[in-house]
Amino acid sequence: MTIRRSSNDRLALGALLVLAVGTFTVGTDGFVLNGLLPTIAADLRVSEAVAGQLTTVFAVTYAISSPLIAAFTGRLDRRWVLGAGMVLFTIGMAGQAIGESFAVVAVARVLAALGAAAFQSNAYVLAGALASDERRGRALATVSLGMSVSMVLGVPIGVLAGTWFGWRAVMWGIGAVAVVVALLVPLLPGLRVPTVSLRDRLAVVVRPPIARVLGVSVLGTAAGFAAFVYLPVLVAPVAAGAMISWLLVGFGIGQIAGNSFAGRATDSLGPARVRSLSLIGTVVTLALLDVAVLSLPGAVVLALASGVFGGMLMVPQQHRLFSLAPDAPTVALGLNGSAIYGGGALGAALGGVVLSSAGVWWVGPVAAFVALLGFALSVLSRTRVPQPA
């Protein structure tokens, strides 16, 4: 890698903040739709299960496009890719704000997802490349913190704004923040990574240790999305409208706590232990979902616990991939981004099917089973691949 800075051992706080604001912006768009699901469904004249597939559209697009974008932009300075991604993301947000039909909004979601794929995976690559080995977990956690903060601030504020001004105003607001990030991207340190062809990227996927780690990302994310996308429906008996924002605040606080813990714990305990704790906690939390949503306090506790355990997963996953693919870390992290959003697509689609065919009370148990599969795969990965102590 070629990094245009005087020292590779000291990561500039300003660069991390720009990257974190970018992931905050992308995260807000990725999650705020869930809190506004009933309003969007009514406005676009579709069912809530169908409206939930806007999340699937975004996730599938991200998962497919992330490795393709990385392959075709390999020779470019990462700043160009980050900036172009945020511009395309902004266009997608504008399209959602003005779209009058489900089809138009879905196409705009595709554009936003393409931009998010270009920005987000490269944000982690830049942070990971500039950090020393001893501080890489904390550097990745700092950028990931933007996603967590979007749950505490961006998503609840978005839900409240959507209640007061309409969901389209929320899309315009996210787009405005994206413009600011795009203007700040040229201030980041320059970074060029080795060019890797699409064939080489696919070769990385089939490495058994990496494939297992990516599989855990898919299943862990799918479990959360299967339930979280349909949160307003799940908690409808005890929370509705602006009250949903308080549940999202609880989830976001949990995300920040889990992400912060994971950054330091991954550096000190190793990724395997942190990942196992995350997945076991997710299984238990989702298994208790149907009981928790019988009361508002229970739903708040559920949201907080879900955020803590969910927020702990991706830092050890990213750290592990850096270790498994030292020859192609940018490829591995890009593929992990695809795995995350592929899992999101799988979870959103699965949750929609369960909701429409079996009913709301089956969403939690099915999501818990998916998380259990993720834990089983993580145990298999640990027994076959040596992990740091």
Automatic annotation (TrEMBL):
Which compartment or compartments is the protein found in? Cell membrane
Would you indicate the residue range of the signal peptide? none
* Record has 4Fe-4S as a keyword: no
Q: Tell me which UniProt keywords the record has, alphabetically.
A: Cell membrane, Membrane, Transmembrane, Transmembrane helix
Regions that span the bilayer: 51-73, 80-98, 104-127, 139-164, 170-189, 210-231, 243-262, 328-354, 360-380
SUPFAM superfamilies found in the cross-reference section: MFS general substrate transporter
This protein's membrane topology, according to the annotation, is:
Multi-pass membrane protein
Taking every annotated instance into account, which residue ranges of this chain make up the domain Major facilitator superfamily (MFS) profile?
15-386
GO molecular function terms here?
transmembrane transporter activity
This protein's name: MFS transporter
Organism listed in the record? Amycolatopsis alba DSM 44262
